Amino acid sequence: MSDWGDLQIAEYRFRVTEALLRANLIPGPRFYWTLRVYSTGPLDDERINPCLYSENLLGLLNVKIARWTDIIGKKLRWDACYNERFDSAEASMDVYSSEDISNATLEFLEAPSGLAIRWQGVTEVSSEKFDNYTEIQFNLDTGVVFEGFATIDISEDKAVDQLRQFVTEEPLMNPKSIGDGILLFEPSSKKEGRGQL
Prior knowledge:
Layout: E1 6-9, E2 12-26, E3 30-43, E4 46-48, E5 51-54, E6 75-78, E7 82-83, E8 88-89, E9 92-94, E10 98-100, E11 102-111, E12 114-124, E13 135-152, H1 156-163, E14 176-179, E15 182-185
Parallel strand pairs: 2-13
Antiparallel strand pairs: 1-2, 1-13, 2-3, 3-4, 3-5, 5-9, 6-11, 7-8, 9-10, 11-12, 12-13, 13-15, 14-15
C-alpha cells in the first residue's frame, strides 16, 4: 500500500498526490489549523484534480495542545458548512469550482509512519457527469504530512513565547522563513514520512 490514499466522489476514485496539515498563529492571538488534500484521476474521458481544503478547522480553533500529535484521535463533525458562531466556512472541495462541504466528519488517526485522516461528507459538483450540483457523497482516506507551526506577522523574538500559549511542550527546531512575515517552526520530534492507514 502506498503512503497516499484515495478520494472517492460518487463512483469515481482519485489518487491523492499530496496532503498537508499546518498549525498557524496570528496576532490576537488566534491559533488555527489548515488542511489541503490534492488528488488526480480520470473522470470518464478527462483527467481532473479535485482538491479538498479547510483554511480554518473550526473544531480545533484556539485549542491548546502539548504536542502536535495530540490531535490524533480527534474527530470533527459539522452539518452546515457555514458556521455562524465563527462567521466562517468549515471546508470546501474544488473540482470545477469551489463548493461547500457539509454533513461531514473528519478523523485524525495514528499511522505507522505518522498521521492519517479519514474524511467523509457531502458536496456539490458543477458537471453534467454528476447531474450538475447534485449533493454527492465523498470518502477520503489518506496519510498526511504535518508541516509544522507557522507564526504570521509576529516578530521572531516574540514568536516562540506566543506559540507557547497554545503549544506547551513541543520541542521546536529553529524557524525558517516560508513567506513574507511567516516563520515555520518544525517539531524536532516530527516523524518523517507520510502516514498510511
